[in-house]
Amino acid sequence: MAEDTAARHGVDRQPDCRKEQESDHQRQLGQALIDRGRRLGAGAGLALAHRAVVVTLGVAFPTVIRPKLIERKADKALMAMPAFQQIAKWEPASYNQMKAEMIGSLERDESSVQAQGRIRARVQKVSKQYMRTASDDSLIAYISVTVEEIKQVNAKDPAVAFGMLFGGKTDVDVTKYIDDATQKKDAEALAEIIHTGVAKEAGSQNDQKATQMLRDVVAGMRRDFGPDAELPFNPKATGPDAASQRRTCEMTVEFYNRILALRSDQSAQVLRLLLASAG
What we know:
By secondary structure, the chain is mainly alpha-helical. The protein has eleven helices and two strands. Residues about 1-15 and about 30-65 have low confidence and may be disordered. The chain has a domain at about 20-35 and about 55-130. It is about 70% helix and about 0% strand. A hairpin with a 2-residue loop joins strand 1 (about 45-50) and strand 2 (about 50-55). Strands 1-2 form a two-stranded antiparallel sheet.
């Protein structure tokens, strides 16, 4: 009788134990996804050699969870970020594509780096669209934080920074290179780009004056740095070694810092000129 009772209890308990373990596992996976999702959006809107580069972080993806749970967790992770709240509001089609990319990566058990690259490509298209019509302050803030991000990446791995700037490299786990505070600033700045870009809050644009200001910045770089001043505009001249790549990234940061040092309305006009040239 005791054995039958024990056996019966054992059978009764196993499903409950499995359910509890599954529930705990799902909660842990979900929380990990949300935590990493909060860092989604750290990126770069830097225009290099007349083309914009946008870098955003991705999410750590769990292996096997139910499809509906995957969709809920993907939504929760994305909507934890201000930038994706704006994308969902103003670009629902783009948001759904990003969510589909995340869900597909989860289902295929892709690495977080692969998934990040997919989402970055989507975010790049959205952010480039609105940077040209965003307010002066939001554009300057976004480029400023992007410059800081490039500095941080370059300090740790020049090859990664160089690839992000000039090679269109998106499969980078930039959480390894950029501190949490800067990631947070980037997410907030990106949200403002979209918010003010939708409202078309950009200041007046005079391309002729902006071109002259850009020429003045480049002339000052050539005066102060000689041949090295050409590196941001001719990255193919950069050697394959870390020192050469670091120097090119340093000169690129210097170039944008000089633009950002202009009066705010002038800085924004030069940045928009570069974005327009990037196509």
